[in-house]
Structure formats: C-alpha cells, structure tokens
Write a structure and sequence with these properties.
CATH class: Alpha Beta
CATH architecture: 2-Layer Sandwich
Radius of gyration: 15 Å
Number of domains: 1
Oligomer: single chain
Shape: globular
CATH topology: Nucleotidyltransferase, domain 5
Amino acid sequence: MLILTIKTDQVEAQLCLYQDEKLLEAERWSAHRQLAETIHQKIASLLKSQEFDWADLQGIVCFKGPGSFTGLRIGMSVANALAYGVAAAVVSAQGDDWQTVGIKRLMAGENEVSALPEYGGEIFTTKPRK
C-alpha cells in the first residue's frame, strides 16, 4: 500500500512516502506562510522522485494536532481532498508515534473518509468590528 503522511502543525512541514510500513522518502521544508502554495508541489516532487503518480496513492495519514490552526486546516484539507480525488483511504493520528499508528490503521482497513483536526483547545474567533 502506497501511503503519504502529512504533518503541517508547525512552521516546518513534513511529508513522507511509505510502501506499507517501509519509509521510501521524506521531505521537510520551512513552509511557514507559504504552506498552501508549496504543499502540492512538494507532494508531486516526492511522488515523482519515487516514480509514482498521484493516482498510485492508496492511503493518507495526516497529523491531527494539536498545533497551528491554519497549518492543521491546510494539511487536513489537502489530505481530505487528495483522498477523495484519488479514492484513497484517509486517517488522522496524533502523538509522537502518529505515523506508525496511522499506517497501522490504514493497513487494517480503516478510513475516516473525512479526517478532522484537533486544535488542542476551544477555537477562538474574534467578533467583527462594526
């Protein structure tokens, strides 16, 4: 099973490509405010470097948090949209062993269909000014 892992809760984003539980390649970059602009390019580059295409993905594991609201939102949106677009399973996980846990869940046949973030607290939005 070809699996993509996505972690976007910090300034440094991380993508990994696995064949079952074997790590094929990892990519880390300082995404900061360019995460939404760079994540698709980084995924495409990661797949191409291993001679795979988007449609080859069979599973996606996304770090669910806690972490940056915007970073998690972008990572989860990409994971969910990509899973839907290529008909891959998607799961989310947290903790230090999130990749291992997520990969085992995928290999056991789990699919959240739509992974949701865990921000680590109540979401606070400011009231609009009049």
